[in-house]
Design a protein that fits this description.
- It is a single chain.
- By secondary structure, this protein is mainly beta.
- It has a five-stranded mixed beta sheet, with no helix packed on it. Strands 13, 14, 15, 16 and 17 form a five-stranded antiparallel beta sheet that branches.
- It is built from no helices and 38 strands.
């Protein structure tokens, strides 16, 4: 994995347990759900009012924003309030009132100076633990923290020191809380080795939140210091039954005598992988045949988990070569069932597609758009007969590296990447409904909670946008009353 983004630029939530799908008032981790769909079907934002979206507030935080914001309802004193949580490259984590933008709390952790790779704070999206009322975050000094949602105070027995070599190892990918375990993906900054010339050791660690201890670890490339990092915005994903974890791995760094060179695909390097939740067994893996063995052509985020009607269970992931691949997740080893060549091979094609289940539509960012001044945009694919994927539209928006889009009802929201700004598109036809310019580049994935869209930029500004209220539905006209006919219209008489 090469340095792509930065070089380019105790109260409780009132919920009994983490839901299989987040409610309208919670965006608990990257992707919103464990399938990483980035989809919120229930919202007060539609194509009817999205064009009227306005900036509700903005906050200037202390550093660039790469991680996705998160949000939940939290008991503050005696009041239930909506908070949004944001992390910066200055090492700070904020809890902010979602309605006003007022900062409730701020915690700041050490940053890491990674030589030519730059200085890093928190790029990883954290994970909200509703049952414990905690926010888990990864700091650049190799520690994992559990912060009170209400106050930012550290919960005992946290923090956990996870990385022994934070000068070369880094947590890029989002944290995920699945079936009571916190999964943390480990990668590198930009593949640079330590002072001894030893590269980072990519892996996935599983942590028991009760005692803040690592209980399992999976090494994609056997041996030490040979990369195989799990990075991008997503770390792991899983289906609703949570019986299998899915991830996608970056390049290895292993010398091959056959070519007298270092190869990218040793072990599980450059591969899609299915794992048991205890991380003890690889259930399946695949490297698409068109991916080279050299050249840093790795995957840049965990795959989307989805199943359109009439299709087998599927996975979708983007690879730096510019292709979005789709696998039958019951037959991963057979290779992709579809390959969508969408990128230009210049700006690394990282992240994963997003998915709207209601319209059975995949949305992919950072695709090549002919005739666009920047050459980039979004594309949507519907599911056709025999589980084929048919392009519905391709619309220009932004440039360079772009975070995955989110789907809110029938509206797609996305950041502009290198071009900065945000945009909203009609998911049915790709028409641009709304846009907002920013001075900073926008690499942080957007979120939406309760009709408000939140996003950040590299200038350190966190934005909140709201759409006007939808007009009430027209009242049905009352039906005209028919005259009531009497049962008997003649003179009454007694029966004999």
């Amino acid at each position: 994995m090469r340095c792509l983004i930065l070089a380019a630029g105790a109260a409780l939530v009132l919920a009994a347990a983490p839901p299989a799908r987040a409610d309208t008032w919670t965006w608990p981790a990257y992707g919103r759900d464990h399938q990483l769909t980035n989809d919120d079907a229930a919202s007060s934002i539609t194509t009817a009012n999205a064009p009227g979206m306005k900036l509700a507030w903005s906050d200037t935080l202390d550093g660039a924003i790469i991680a996705s914001p998160l949000s939940a309802r939290v008991l503050i004193g005696m009041s239930l309030r909506q908070l949004v949580f944001a992390a910066t490259e200055a090492g700070s984590v904020y809890g902010i009132f979602a309605d006003t933008g007022a900062v409730v709390w701020q915690r700041t952790f050490p940053t890491s100076a990674a030589g030519a790779c730059g200085t890093f704070g928190t790029s990883s999206t954290g994970a909200i633990d509703p049952r414990r009322g905690l926010l888990y975050v990864a700091a650049a000094d190799g520690t994992i923290h559990a912060l009170s949602l209400a106050t930012g105070a550290e919960a005992a027995p946290w923090p956990l020191r996870l990385l022994d070599r934070p000068d070369v190892e880094y947590v890029w990918g989002g944290l995920q809380l699945v079936s009571g375990r916190l999964y943390v993906p480990v990668a590198s900054y930009c593949d640079a080795p330590d002072a001894r010339g030893v590269a980072a050791e990519g892996r996935i660690d599983a942590i028991d939140p009760d005692n803040a201890q690592v209980v399992a670890s999976w090494d994609p490339v056997a041996g030490f210091g040979n990369l195989g990092g799990v990075w991008g915005w997503g770390g792991v994903s899983t289906a609703a039954d949570e019986t299998t974890l899915y991830t996608a791995v970056g390049n290895s760094y292993v010398h091959s005598d056959a070519c007298d060179c270092f190869v990218d695909d040793a072990g599980y390097g450059d591969k899609l992988v299915a794992l048991t939740p205890d991380l003890t067994q690889v259930l399946a893996s695949n490297k698409p045949v068109d991916v080279p063995t050299q050249g840093d052509e790795d995957f840049g985020a965990a795959p989307l988990v989805f199943q359109p009607r009439g299709c087998p269970p599927l996975l979708a992931a983007k690879n730096k070569v510019g292709v979005a691949y789709i696998w039958n997740r019951e037959r991963i080893g057979d290779g992709p069932i579809a390959s969508l060549g969408l990128g230009d091979g210049t700006s690394p094609f990282v992240g994963a597609p997003s998915y709207d289940a209601a319209l059975q539509t995949l949305v992919v960012t950072q695709v090549v758009v002919a005739g666009n001044g920047t050459g980039y945009g979004l594309a949507a694919f519907g599911v056709g007969a025999s589980c084929t994927f048919e392009q519905r539209w391709r619309t220009p928006l932004g440039s360079g590296n772009q975070a995955p889009a989110i789907v809110v009802g029938n509206v797609v929201f996305a950041g502009g990447g290198d071009s900065g700004g945000f945009g909203a598109l009609n998911i049915a036809n790709g028409s641009l409904l709304w846009s907002y310019p920013t001075t900073g580049r926008t690499f942080s994935p957007l979120i939406e909670v309760g009709g408000t869209v939140f996003g950040g930029d590299l200038g350190g500004t966190l934005y909140a946008f709201r759409a006007p209220a939808l007009p009430p539905p027209p009242k049905a006209k009352p039906r005209p009353r028919r005259p009531v006919r009497p049962l008997h219209s003649g003179p009454w008489r007694l029966l004999p």
